[in-house]
Amino acid sequence: MTILEIVDLSINFGGLKAVDSLSFAVNEGQIFGLIGPNGAGKTTVFNCITRYYQPNQGRIVFGGQNILDIRSHDVIGKGIARTFQNMELFKSMTVLDNLLVGQHCHLDTNVFSEALSLPVKKRKEREISEKAQKVMELLGLSKYARDLVLSLPYGMQKMVEMGRALVSEPKLILLDEPAAGMNPSESKELSSLIKRLRDTRGITVLVVEHDMAMVRSICDEICVMDFGRKIAQGSADEICRNPQVIEAYLGCEEEGSGCFR
């Protein structure tokens, strides 16, 4: 069953066409890779999905609804969460506080319950705290709960950002270069985590990543972009052998040149 469908998506920045008539579909429960050289338009697609950008044409259908018809701050409430290429954390706050902030879309108390500290407010606070604790356990962050994010190593900060996305209980999570800056051991652990999120929590994953070993190991299907356009789509093995993909990455058409090594 299709959970996300991109239909004829285009967006221009001045005279530059950053995304050009892009179409692809992600099925529920998939780990779907969106790859391409730097500047191909991958993050721009993410920014259109999450409504940071308004495309010039096309549709983005999530759960049967064109999300271009909703406001940007309502996207997370529909079940879409994301991480960023450049982390967007509250680094002067603790790990726990970052995960609590990530649940703002589920805070449905009103001004009276907030002002009077009614039982419903206390119950909601307890629920979001418990949820944050469970996500920290999942990501190995529990012992850092009271630490300031800025004091953590880079790899742990990436996990905090992942945690902040997960506490919103997404149906679809967009991961923008999650392995950037990680060593091979950390990347391998991250790959296992992403597959576990799909297998145990039923979260569909759309991932932009330059670590081709990770992409090949976790993705059920891959869409390749170059200069804003889709040039190939298929399994990792199909993509690896595709002459257009090899040329886009290496500037040559030599079959088997190892673009996924």
From TrEMBL:
Query: Which residue intervals define the domain ABC transporter in the entry?
Result: 4-252
Native organism is: Formimonas warabiya
CDD domains assigned to the protein according to its UniProt record, in alphabetical order: ABC_Mj1267_LivG_branched
GO cellular component, as recorded? plasma membrane
Molecular functions per Gene Ontology: ATP binding; ATP hydrolysis activity; L-isoleucine transmembrane transporter activity; L-phenylalanine transmembrane transporter activity; L-valine transmembrane transporter activity
SUPFAM superfamilies from the UniProt entry: P-loop containing nucleoside triphosphate hydrolases
Q: Which domain of life is it from?
A: Bacteria
Keyword terms: ATP-binding, Nucleotide-binding, Transport
Q: Coiled coil where?
A: none
Q: Is Ribosomal protein found in the keyword set?
A: no
Q: Taxonomy-wise, where does this protein's organism fall, top ranks first?
A: Bacteria, Bacillati, Bacillota, Clostridia, Eubacteriales
Query: Which GO biological process entries does UniProt record here?
Result: D-alanine transmembrane transport; L-alanine transport; L-isoleucine import across plasma membrane; L-valine import across plasma membrane
Q: Which SMART domains match?
A: AAA
Q: Known PROSITE patterns for this protein?
A: ABC_TRANSPORTER_2
Q: What is this protein called?
A: ABC transporter ATP-binding protein
